[in-house]
Amino acid sequence: MKRRTFLTFCSSTGLSPVIGSWAASPNETPNIASVGVGGKGWADSQGAAAFANMQAFCDVNTGRTKRKGGYFLATEKWPKANKYADWREMLEKEGETLDGITVTTPDHMHAPITMTALRMGIACYTQKPLTRTIYESRMISAAAKEAGVATQMGNQHHNGRTYKTLVNLIRNGAVGKIKEVHCWSDRPVWPQGIARPDGTSEVPETLDWNLWLGGAPDRPFHDAYQPFNWRGWFDFGAGALGDMGAHIIDPPVWALELGPALTVSYEGPETMPETFPKAERIHYVFKGTKLTKGEQLALTWHDGDKRPDLTACGLPADFKLAGGGSLYIGESGTIVVGHGSSALPAIFQDGKSAGIDFEVIDGVNHYEQWINAIRGEGETTSNFAYAGPLTETVLLGTIVCRFPGQTLEWNPGAMKFNNSAEATGLVSQPYRKGWEVEGLG
Q: Is there a domain that residue 371 lies in?
C-alpha cells in the first residue's frame, strides 16, 4: 500500500500511522528531500545526504546566491535529484517515496512544512528553533508522536562531546547541586532594535517572494529581510535567543532535567514594534529538581553586549568568556563551557581552576543518528518529544521581551500566561490566507 493510500485509509478508519511504517530497511539507503539548500540549508542537506539518497530538493531562490550552496550548486551536486521552488509541490509529487526531509528555512516556515511532512508519515530533521511560536511547538510534538517517525531538531551540539561531557559532569555532582545558571551569546550579528524600512527593494530575479513569505503577513520585499537578516523580525524569526537558545539553553535543561519555566521576565531597552532588542537579559525561574539546590532554579540568558558577572559567578575577574556558552554555579564550584568549540568544560573552585580530571564522552554525528533512526537503528536524542518542550522554553523569552517590567507567570497546561492576556495572544499567531496547514489550527 502506498503512503498516500495508507494515510487516507487511516483517516477514514480513525487509525493512526504505525510507528516505523515507512522506515527504510537497514539494508537500504533512505530517500530524502531538502527544503532550503542555501546557507545553513547547504550544511543540512549535505550532512543528511552523506548517509542517504537525495531524491529531491527545494528552494525559493532558484539561482546563484552569495551564501554557501543554494539551488544552482545543489543542481550540480545532485544532478539526478528532482528540483522545486515550492515545497508543497515537492511533497505532493515526491512524498510517496520519501523516507525523510530536512527543513532549513526562515523560522516562520518550520512548522507548516514539518507538520505537512509528519502528516504524510515522513521523518523530519528540522532546524532550530523547532518553530516560531509556542503553539506550533506543542502541535508539532504531538504530531510527531502520532506519526511515529524519526525526528531530530538541528541543534547538532546536543550530540557533540562538549555538551555530552558537560551533562555527565553535572549529573555526577562535579560541583554539587546547581544553584544558578547563566547562558549567553554574542549574537545578534544582524540588525535588531530597528523600525521597518521605508520603501522597497527590487526583488531578485530568481527569488519567489510570495513563496518566501509563506504564512507570514504580506509585506513588500526589502533587502532588510532576506537572505539572513529575517532573524531579527517578529514575523519571520525569533531573535538572538531563538537562534542560539536552542543550542545554549539545551545543556542546562537536559542536564538538570528541567520542566517548564514558572516565570519569565525581561531586562533591556524598550523593544521596537517589529524587531527584537539589540541586547537583553531574560530571567527564567524553574521548579527545582533532584540536581538543583533549593525549591527553584534561576537561569539567566544574556545576549548582545550583556554578560554574566564573572566574580559573582565564581570565575576569575580576568577570565575570557567564549562568544557563547553557559556556566553552572554549584555548591562547591562553578562549571563553565563555551558553545560551538572543541573546548571541554572547565571547573573552578574559589575563583581558581580546580584542576580536576574527568571523563570525556565521545560525540556522535547528529545527521547520521537521524538517518540511522529512519532505518530502524536506534533513536534520536533531540527528537521532537525533547526538542518541542525545549523550544517552548526558549520562546517564552521571545514573548516576554515585549513586556518590560513584567514578570509573566507561565501555565503550560493551559498554554497561557496567567497574568497577561496580551502575552497569551502571542503564544499562537494566524497564517496568511491560503497558507493555513491542517493540524496547526
A: yes
Among 416, 412, 414, residue whose Cα is nearest residue 390 = 412
- Residues 159-193 have pLDDT tens digits of 999 999 999 999 999 999 999 999 999 999 999 99
Instruction: Evaluate if pTM is beyond 0.90.
Output: yes
Half-sphere exposure in the Cβ direction for 420 (13 Å, CA): 22
Distance CA 290, CA 275 (A): 38
Domain harbouring 133, CATH code: 3.40.50.720
Does residue 269 sit within a domain?
no
- Structural domain count of the chain: 1
For the chain, the residue count is 441
Q: Is residue 94 part of a domain?
A: yes
Element spanning 101, H or E: strand 100-103
Cβ atoms of 343 and 26 within 8 Å: the answer is no
Which residue range is the domain that position 101 belongs to? 3-157+366-383
117 band by pLDDT with thresholds 50, 70 and 90: very high
User: Which residue, 51, 48, 44, is CA-closest to 29?
Assistant: 51
* Sign of the dihedral through C-alpha 43, 46, 52, 54: positive
414 within some domain: no
Q: How far apart are CA 301 and CA 397, in angstroms?
A: 9
Strands 346-349 and 352-353: antiparallel
Q: Alpha-carbon dihedral of residues 399, 142, 150, 376, nearest 10 degrees?
A: 150
Tell me phi and psi for residue 397, to 5 degrees.
-70, -30
Cell 547528529 found at: 366
Is the four-CA dihedral 152, 108, 182, 178 of positive or negative sign?
negative
Dig out the grid coordinates for 296 from the structure: 527553584
In angstroms, the CA 259 to CA 333 distance is 24
Query: Whole-angstrom Cα distance, residue 325 to residue 183?
Result: 6
Buried b (16+ CB within 10 A) or exposed e, 178-200: bbbbbbbbbbbebebbeeeeeee
Buried b (16+ CB within 10 A) or exposed e, 252-278: bbbbbebeebbbbbbbbeebbeebbbb
Q: Is 353 left (phi over 0), alpha (psi -120 to 50) or beta?
A: beta
Distance CA 60, CA 86 (A): 7
**Beta bridge mates, 409:** 263
